[in-house]
Amino acid sequence: MRSRTISYLKWGNILVLALVFAISINIFLVQPYIVSGSSMEPTLAGEDFLETDKVGDRILVFKSAYILGNVPEYGEMVIIDSRVDHTRTIKDQLLDSPILSFFSNSRNKGNIWIKRVIGEAGDTIEFKDGSIYRNGDILMEDYIKEEMLVENEKFVIPKEHVFVMGDNRNNSSDSREIGPVPIENVVGKVILRFYPFERIGIL
């Protein structure tokens, strides 16, 4: 009986260590996400709660992409915390993990978005006549869904911020609404779509 108890304890310790290891990877290295909504079409398909047969793309996000001075670059797809006035803490990082958020009965309140980086610190982004100009040069973007309908407007991107937009410009909440996003609110870089299987590929 004692031998069996010791064996159970050993297996229990192994399972706990495995869980801690999995959570650590999930928090600090890579994390899967399910795309929701249509803001990144046609690049990424999102779940639609009104169309239950529509499957959202499953993506993998590298969460340590922007540490040690690295910053998001033009064209990269990123996961952001859209609460631009909220200072992210280690608690936010922990609750980003679906494992910990499940056990804590906590879910993000729609503040985690996937977008594309359009502007970096110091850039001037201008919307004019349905086109985007970055520092006076028109952007040629082959990934957007359709011609953009937008009022003429101009943004100057402050230090340590990025300007992000969805590829479905006419159906996207992004920096046009919330303003430039602090780099500390960039949760990670989208690196891979792993489902549906026929659309697997590096992004």
From TrEMBL:
Per the record, what are the reactions this protein catalyses?
Cleavage of hydrophobic, N-terminal signal or leader sequences from secreted and periplasmic proteins
Which Gene3D superfamilies does the protein's record reference?
Umud Fragment, subunit A
Its Enzyme Commission number? Answer: 3.4.21.89
GO MF, one term, reads: signal peptidase activity
At the top of the EC hierarchy, this enzyme's class is hydrolase
Q: Where are the transmembrane segments?
A: 12-34
Q: Enumerate the UniProt keywords alphabetically.
A: Hydrolase, Membrane, Protease, Transmembrane, Transmembrane helix
Q: Which residues form the Peptidase S26 domain?
A: 10-195
User: Entry's InterPro entries?
Assistant: LexA/Signal_pep-like_sf, Pept_S26A_signal_pept_1, Pept_S26A_signal_pept_1_CS, Pept_S26A_signal_pept_1_Ser-AS, Peptidase_S26
Compartments, as annotated in UniProt: Cell membrane; Membrane
CDD domains attached here?
Answer: S26_SPase_I
Q: Which SUPFAM superfamilies does this UniProt record tie to the protein?
A: LexA/Signal peptidase
**One of the record's GO cellular component terms:** plasma membrane
Please provide the Gene Ontology terms (biological process) for this protein: signal peptide processing
The topology of this chain with respect to the membrane is: Single-pass type II membrane protein
UniProt family annotation:
Belongs to the peptidase S26 family.
**PANTHER family referenced in this protein's UniProt entry, alphabetically:** CHLOROPLAST PROCESSING PEPTIDASE, SIGNAL PEPTIDASE I
Q: What is this protein called?
A: Signal peptidase I
